[in-house]
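Look at a sample.

——
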Amino acid sequence: MNIKNTKTLTTRDKVLLTLLTLLALVILALYSSWGRPLWLDEYLHFVFGGFDSIGDAWGAVQTSTTNINHGQTGFYMMLDFALLKTFGANLFMMRLPSLLSAALLLFSAALFLRRKNLGPIAIAAAFLLLLAQPNLMYFAGEARPYMPMAASAMAALAYFSTDMQTRTTTGMRVLIWGSMVWGALMMPYYLLYLPVITITAYLIARLNGEKPRLIAFINVPVQITSVVVGVTISAFTWLRGSPTFSRDPWLIIRPLIDSVTAPQLIGLIFLGALIVFTLWQGLVHTTDRARLERQLAAGTLLVLVMIAMSILFAALSLSQSYWILPRQFIASQAIITVAVVWILASALLANPKRYKVAVSTLFAIGIALGAGRATVNQIDSLADWENNGYPVEGNPGDQGFQGMDVAAANQNVIDGGPVLPEFTVIYDSPKYGPGEDPLEQ
């Protein structure tokens, strides 16, 4: 199939799109965390199912978001309160908002590439590259707000990459307004991502020779509503204060950097050389060099802006003496993935036929190996959780860090029924509030 988009889909195209949908469902299933036990951070969400009322749950949000749940709006916790009260101690339902967000991420990634006149082959490549990044897609099955934030950012990119006339359709309005409210309620980072993505998309449109009016392009009502929603919920939660940290910011990142092996480094160098060769041959042989240069410049701008956003979030952690965590970067990571596909697909289409097949084959092999390895690892994890069950060994009354009893919570999941109210005691402590690092209390 031609990698370019066509207005009229052939039967073969429809089959490929069906296969893309199936691929997306496989990715969601692999990263659904089906059968994965609770762990400490998710426990902080799980216990909300034990509160008797909305008022009690909201009180815990307000108390804890200035300390142990610092930097969070608490919206996901309140959502889990509703889900767990409705469905009982069910981890799948507790994590469902993240899984639905991952579906939005994949849909928006595909929509973005379609807006760049790329079709099912490019979309499949993007899906497989996302599949090959477990440090990103893991959050599809994690009851925390990182995947909703990343998905909302990707949806914003897809929307602002759409022409002004198409944006007025009902579907596009639902996409931007729904994702905006979702992102603004879920995560403070979204309030930075939305305007940055909007301005970047505007600059890309200008690079491509379009002349949109800035005020019309940025959709002022969406921008203002995002700030109002995000700042309002933040004013009642994390903006009220935060702990004083004294942690090594590099503690989590340093081992990841040190773990890079020589073969991996050689592979990265080879990949870089292949990318440079593809871009060079595309520029040399294209029949419309000016257009290709604009596409490559636009894609590169998007990558650089997302790298800058990651550096900004790392700098914020450094300024607060807090860990730099990979999860801070997953929205940028996802957008960089689709931007790289856009760049390479644009260059590859301009390559001479004698190189196009060989280079495409090399890229396909690399993507298949990465996606295949991630698939095997995820299947092994799903099988391991199925075979070993939930860890409930030890004395269920032996409460650990901050009074958390994760083993007893996993037993609650096994037994079914409602979440036990006894778990909520961790939010009763008067020590929660701005001040000391929760790890040191």
User: Anything to note?
Assistant: The chain has a mean pLDDT of 90. The two ends are 60 Å apart (CA to CA).
